[in-house]
C-alpha cells in the first residue's frame, strides 16, 4: 500500500496519515492547522510562500510574516509526525510531496464536474451525496477559505438542481423560487392542492423575511392557477396574499401607481378581516411607495393617525411596520433633520387618541432624535418614557429599541457596565419580537460598542459573526451598526483582514442608499484601518472627511470623535 494522507475539509477538518487520525490536540498551534487547511484546498496542494504569507498574515511586514510562516511549517510538520509533511520546492510549499494525498474536496469537485457535464439527474444526485457539509465550517471568517467555500457550495446547488432534489435545495437556500415552484407543480400534479398553497406561503414568508421582496410574476401566476383548481372560492387570506405579492412585483418594476393601488386594496381587506400581519405588510408597501415619491412624512402621519384612532392599542404588526420605517428615516440620506417636530406632531396625535402604544413610538422618535443630535440627557428622558409606555402597551419591539438606544447613550458617556446591562435586558425582547431579524443584530452592534476590555470586544464581534452566519435571516440595513463597530474594533485590535471583511460588507450594504450617516461612518472605519497600518497622515485625512460628513448631518458626537482622532497622530 502506498503511503497516504487523507484530508477532510467538507463538513469539518481532519487528517489521517497512513490510516491513523491526527489527534485534535496536535493542532495546538492554530496557524499550523491553518497552513495545512490552506494547502489542502489549493490545487495540487501547492502554494508560493509569499502567497501563504499574504493570505495568513496580510497585516504584517514581509519579515514578520516570514517568521510566522517558518513557525507554522515547523508545528505543522510536528503535528503530522513527519519532517517531510510540508515540503519546500524553491519558494513553493507542498503538502506531503512524497505521499499520495486524498482530499474529499478534490473527489467531490471531480465527481461534480463529470455529473454536471453529463446532465444526468442520477449522476448529479450521486455526486451531491459526497457533499457532507460546507468547506471548513469552523473557519467561516477566514477570508482565504471564502472563495473555495462559495465555489463548492455553488456546485452543490447546481447538482441538486439538476437532480431535481428541490427539498434539499431549499435547505440550502429557502428563497430559491424555482425550487418552490417545482414543488408546487409536483404537489398539484399529485392532487395535493393544500400542500401547493402552503409551499407558496413558505416562499412568500422566506422572501419577505430574508430579503424584503415578494415572489415574482411567474410564481404568482402559478399560485393563482392552484387557487382556481379548488371547488371553493379563494379565502380572504389568499386574496390578500396574491394582492400583496402583485403589489411587490409592481414595486419592483417601479410602477408606483399600481403598487399603491394594490397595497391599499390589501390594506382594506386585511383591516376588515382583522389580519394584523398582512395589515403591517400593506402598510410597509405603502410606506415604500411614499418614500419613493418623497411623501413619506404625510403617509406615515396618516397611517399613524388612522392606527391610533382606530385602536388605542396598535396592532403589533402595524407598530412594527411603523418602527422599521421610522428607523430607516433616521438613517436615510437626509439624516434626522426634522425628526423633532415630526415626533412632537405624532406625540400630540397619540395623546389625543389616548394611545399608549402611539406615545411609546413618538417618545422613541424624540429620544432617538435627541441622541443623534448629541443631547444625551434629553434622549434618556424620552427613551425612559417610551420604555414605560411600551411596557404598558405590551410592545416588545418598541421596548427593545428604547433599551438599545438607552444603552447607546450610556456607552457614549463611557458608562459601559450600565450599557451592557441594558443590552442584556433588551436581548430577550428582541428575540421574541416580530421583527427579530432587524433587532437582534442591532443589539450585537451595541454589545461591541459597550464592551470595556479588548477581549470582551472581540468576543462580542464573534457572537455577532456567529449570528450572521447561522440565523435564518438578518436584515442587511439593520446590520450596518454591527458591521461598523466590528470593523472598527478589529482594526483597533490589529486584525486587519477581519476588519476589511466587515468593511466590505458594510460598503456593499451602504449601496442601498447614497449619503447619510453610514457613508460618514465608512470613512471613519477606513481611517481606522489606515491608522492601524501605520499610515497616520492618510488616516488623519480620512478622519477629517468623516468629521465633515457627520457635521453636515448634525451628528456632533461622531463629528467630535473623528476630529479628535485626526489630531491624535
Provide an overview of this structure:
With 569 residues, the protein is mainly alpha-helical. Helix content is 71%, strand content 5%. The protein contains 27 helices and seven strands. It has helices at 30-41, 49-56, 62-80, 104-118, 121-128, 143-163, 166-172, 177-189, 193-211, 217-228, 236-252, 256-272, 276-293, 296-310, 316-330, 339-353, 356-372, 376-393, 396-412, 416-432, 436-450, 454-470, 480-492, 496-510, 517-532, 536-552, 556-567, and strands at 4-8, 14-17, 20-21, 46-48, 86-89, 92-95, 100-103. The chain has a four-stranded mixed beta sheet. Strands 4-6-5 form a three-stranded antiparallel beta sheet. The longest helix has 21 residues, at 143-163. The radius of gyration is 27 Å and the shape is flat. 46% of the residues are buried. The mean pLDDT is 88.
Strand percent estimate: under 5%
- C-alpha Rg, in Å? 27 Å
How far apart are the termini?
63 Å
- State the major sheet: 4 strands, mixed
Number of helices: 27
Instruction: Identify the overall geometry.
Output: flat
Low-confidence sequence ranges: none
* Average pLDDT rating: 88
The multimeric state of the shown protein is single chain
Structural class: mainly alpha
| Fraction of helical residues | over 70%
